[in-house]
Write a structure and sequence with these properties.
The structure holds 2 protein chains of 2 kinds.
Chain A: E1 4-7, E2 10-13, E3 18-25, E4 31-37, E5 44-50, E6 53-57, E7 64-70, E8 73-79, E9 87-94, E10 104-105, E11 109-113
Parallel strand pairs in A: 2-11
Antiparallel strand pairs in A: 1-3, 3-8, 4-5, 4-9, 5-6, 7-8, 9-10, 9-11
Chain B: E1 5-7, E2 10-14, E3 19-24, E4 32-37, E5 43-49, E6 55-58, E7 61-65, E8 71-76, E9 85-90, E10 102-107
Parallel strand pairs in B: 2-10
Antiparallel strand pairs in B: 1-3, 3-8, 4-5, 4-9, 6-7, 7-8, 9-10
Classes of the chains: A mainly beta, B mainly beta.
């Protein structure tokens, strides 16, 4: 248990489905992140939230929609995904949004789009 | 943004051999972080280096930050099968930018 919990661990969805990924951190951190990890690609930053406000959006397609209702919870809403969106989606948190803080990652959601 | 390049991409070693991965930048880094991801797992924070020429040790792992703060290395002495995984360097931007990682295989 890392202190960052992601659900579900595995998800298979069709291209017309709508689903949501959930992330919860129990560390009292103020910043939360969504990363995408595909085979043979480096970790790609998707979204950043600091104190519940989105501070960065890395040109992510609109079929991915983040939500941060409070500093402990982060969601990634998915709709009309493509097969190339299949990947490991990792949530992370850090004490604050600034240099010098290590990130704590969740176990990830393995997403397969069929 | 600032990019960090890691080499090698893959490394296969016999158990008991040493292993080193390198992280390089064309510009000065204010800090560098290292992470380990086991197969099927998630990245786990190992350490952060901040000072020029800094050397830190964690058991068999030795982390170094170059004098010019443009490169860093992770050295594992006498590898064990538990060292298998991908080692990433990251930094120094906010948010973190990760290198592509070095995947270590250890042959027993």
């Amino acid at each position: 248990e890392t202190g960052v919990t992601q659900t579900p661990r595995h998800l298979v969805m069709g291209m017309t489905n709508k689903k949501s990924l959930k992330c919860e951190q129990h560390l009292g951190h103020n910043a939360m992140y969504w990363y995408k990890q595909s085979a043979k690609k480096p970790l790609e930053l998707m979204f950043v939230y600091s104190l519940e406000e989105r501070v960065e959006n890395n040109s992510v397609p609109s079929r991915f929609s983040p939500e941060c209702p409070n500093s402990s919870h982060l969601f990634l809403h998915l709709h009309t995904l493509q097969p190339e969106d299949s990947a490991l989606y990792l949530c992370a948190s850090s004490q604050d949004f600034g240099r010098g803080y290590g990130y704590t990652f969740g176990s990830g959601t393995r997403l397969t789009v069929v | 943004g600032q990019q960090v390049m890691q080499i090698p991409q893959y490394q296969h070693v016999q158990e008991g051999e040493d292993f080193t991965t390198y992280c390089n930048s064309s510009t000065t880094l204010s800090n560098i972080q290292w992470y380990k991801q086991r197969p099927g797992g998630h990245p786990v924070f190992l350490i952060q280096l901040v000072k020029s020429g800094e050397v830190k040790k964690q058991k068999r792992l030795t982390f170094q930050f170059g004098e010019a703060k443009k490169n860093s290395s992770l050295h594992i002495t006498a590898t064990q099968t538990t060292d298998v995984g991908t080692y990433f360097c990251a930094g120094p931007n906010t948010p973190l930018v990760f290198g592509k990682g070095t995947r270590l295989s250890v042959i027993a």
